[in-house]
């Protein structure tokens, strides 16, 4: 069994995130993936969705994997290096998308050098996926699901639209 760590803001959770998770789980049915949702933004973002909403969205989209024990959801309360070094010695790989891999190599992450020296990384291609900030912008502007279905699932859309309707 290989243990993977995938940290994300899930602000919001997109199909790109889901594809990364599914790719890891499809490689070997014994793989176990620890999905850690950050409890705050590490970058300046236009809107940070509440943690409980982001967690609910991830749970809704990964419910089958959570139920069968292949995915374990966690709340990440510290920077990735601090979180992993204090909590999880057993991780075989940290999973990142290509975009985050480039920022990690460029030293843009806190503790970039320590992470790269201590852990092995599994880098997953993200193709032409839209950013989470673009999805948030479309939602705030009232985009219908047919404009977003390439980027987010219907479950995600329904939970987000409820949030945005309440917030307007």
Share in β-strands: 15-25%
Mean pLDDT: 87
Query: Can you tell me the CATH class?
Result: Alpha Beta
Side by side, the strands of the main sheet go: 3-2-1-4-5
Shape: globular
Number of strands: 5
What class would the helix/strand composition place it in?
A: alpha/beta
Query: How many domains?
Result: 1
Question: What is the CATH H-level superfamily?
Answer: HUPs
Number of helices: 8
Q: Summarize the biggest pleated sheet.
A: 5 strands, parallel
Which stretches are poorly predicted, pLDDT < 50 over at least 5 residues? Answer: none
**Helical content class:** 40-55%
Q: N- to C-terminal separation? A: 46 Å
Outline:
The protein has 168 residues and is of the alpha/beta class.
Commentary on this structure:
- The protein is globular and about 45 Å long.
- It has one domain: Rossmann fold (3-Layer(aba) Sandwich), CATH 3.40.50.620.
- Helix 2 (51-67) links the parallel strand 2 (32-38) and strand 3.
- The protein is an alpha/beta fold and 168 residues long.
- The protein contains eight helices and five strands, in the order E-H-E-H-E-H-E-H-H-E-H-H-H.
- The mean pLDDT is 87.
Observed structural traits:
globular; alpha/beta; 17% strand; Rossmann fold
Summarize the helices and strands and which ones pair or pack.
Blueprint (H helix, E strand, L loop, with lengths): L2 E6 L6 H13 L4 E7 L12 H17 L3 E6 L3 H8 L5 E5 H8 L6 H7 L1 E5 L7 H9 L4 H4 L5 H14 L1
Parallel strand pairs: 1-2, 1-4, 2-3, 4-5
Helix pairs in contact: 2-8
């Amino acid at each position: 069994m290989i243990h993977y760590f995938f940290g994300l803001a899930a602000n919001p959770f997109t199909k790109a995130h889901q594809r990364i998770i599914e790719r890891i789980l499809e490689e070997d049915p014994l793989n176990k993936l620890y999905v850690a949702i950050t409890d705050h933004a590490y970058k300046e973002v236009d809107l940070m969705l509440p943690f409980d909403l982001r967690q609910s969205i991830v749970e809704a989209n990964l419910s089958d994997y959570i139920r069968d024990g292949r995915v374990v959801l966690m709340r990440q309360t510290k920077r990735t290096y601090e979180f992993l070094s204090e909590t999880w010695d057993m991780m075989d790989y940290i999973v990142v998308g290509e975009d985050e891999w480039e920022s990690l190599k460029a030293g843009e992450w806190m503790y970039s050098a320590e992470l790269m020296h201590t852990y092995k990384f599994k880098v997953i291609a993200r193709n032409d996926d839209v950013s989470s900030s673009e999805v948030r912008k479309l939602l705030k502007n009232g985009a219908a699901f047919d404009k977003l279905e390439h980027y987010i699932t219907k479950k995600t859309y329904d939970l987000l639209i409820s949030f945005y309707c309440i917030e307007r």
